[in-house]
Design a protein that fits this description.
Elements (H helix, E strand, L loop, with lengths): L28 H12 L7 H13 L4 E5 L2 H11 L7 E4 L6 H8 L3 E4 L10 H7 L4 E7 L8 H7 L6 E4 L7 E2 L2 E2 L6 E5 L12 E5 L2 H11 L30 H11 L2 H19 L5 E2 L7 E2 L5 E5 L1 H4 L3 H10 L15 H6 L7 H9 E4 L7 H22 L3
Parallel strand pairs: 2-3, 2-4, 4-5, 5-8
Antiparallel strand pairs: 1-9, 6-7, 6-11, 8-9, 10-12, 12-13
Helix pairs in contact: 1-8, 2-8, 3-4, 3-7, 5-6
Bound molecules: pyridoxal-5'-phosphate.
The site of pyridoxal-5'-phosphate has 14 residues, from helix 3 and helix 4.
Length: 400
Amino acid sequence: MSVTSPPAIAGGTPIRVQPLPYGRHQIDEADIAAVVAALRSGTLTGGALIADFEHALAARCKVEHAVAVANGSVALDLAVLALGIGPGDEVITTPLTFVATANAVLRTGAVPVFADVGEDRCLDPDSVARAVTPRTKAVITVDYSGLPSDVAALKAALPRPLPVIADSAHSLGASLDGRPVGSLADITTLSFHPVKQITTGEGGACLTSDADIADRIRKLRNHGMTSTADERTGGLWKYDVTMLGDNHRMTAIQAALGISQLRRLEGVVAERSEIADRYDAILIDLPGIGLPPRPAGRRSAWHIYPIEIDPGAFGCERDSVIDALRAEGIEATLHYPAVHLLTLYRERGGVPRTVPQAEQLCDRLVTLPLYPAMTVSDQDDVVLALQRIHVWAAGGAVRS
Ligand SMILES: Cc1ncc(COP(=O)(O)O)c(C=O)c1O
């Protein structure tokens, strides 16, 4: 199959027989043994494995406290609640994110205010500064694609001090000037969904070096109770409830998987980086493709590899590129539709701002497959597909 053969969307033979996903988890024998040992341990929830996972995460991320929770969305909910955010408050965030980021604000009764992104596709400090009002209570930045947000630059641009939450669902293992994600913001939230750098099936965590915030998050994770089931042993069976929490706990089985996965984090990030480097090296010569940004001093954890399509130079619009890649058996996708333009946010939430950079990206981004077990041959399929689609589209075959 050559670059000039017709793409599958125009009736050609699809490049892939087996579809190539955009992301996929990796489970090895050590993970399986860890989960089996947890199942045999007699403790399925609470207990030492949760504490061990939290200590390992905190040590890796150079932060005082880690609190493991049910998923990354809950981690965001608890981070916002721990800051006391509620009705009448505003929280500034980015439209270039998964909807869970803004939902955490909306759920408290506060208003998400959308600021624009910069060249790095993370929140632009000047745009954030312009969005601050007397009602602003916090900023939630998102480490888009795995690149850590420059939290220090964000804080320096603010007209008054505000807590910054980093939604680092994409960036476990990344660093800025040698400082790991987790140590950069007031609260950092992580996700361990299977497409992320490490997985616990579903799972997430809040990281902070503030003991009071960590304590509030621990209580919120456990119905607002003053003690956990582990602590209520012997004579200590009484408890009180001091805040409105819920059951947001992770199981010991998940924690066992997390501990095992975390041991391989460095290798996973290295493999992801290698795939991203190879994409960069090949795609740089293809017209109309903008490569992911690589700001100096920042090491990405490469959760995803989103390219930016320039429709004029490439030959067709972004939607056609995704449709054509999918016809080839390559599960390219979009991260993300702009949150402020989703129906829920148009109808009831989110202060509309001028966010031209984010809107342009949301119209032009295409996420290409990237995960550690992906082979060079898989990657070559993606590149060949893009080349074929470009040759066909630039030849005038598609208008939109
Ligand atoms: C930026 C971002 N924030 C939050 C979440 C939510 O994480 P979870 O799926 O673990 O709830 C995700 C999930 O992909 C995400 O990409």
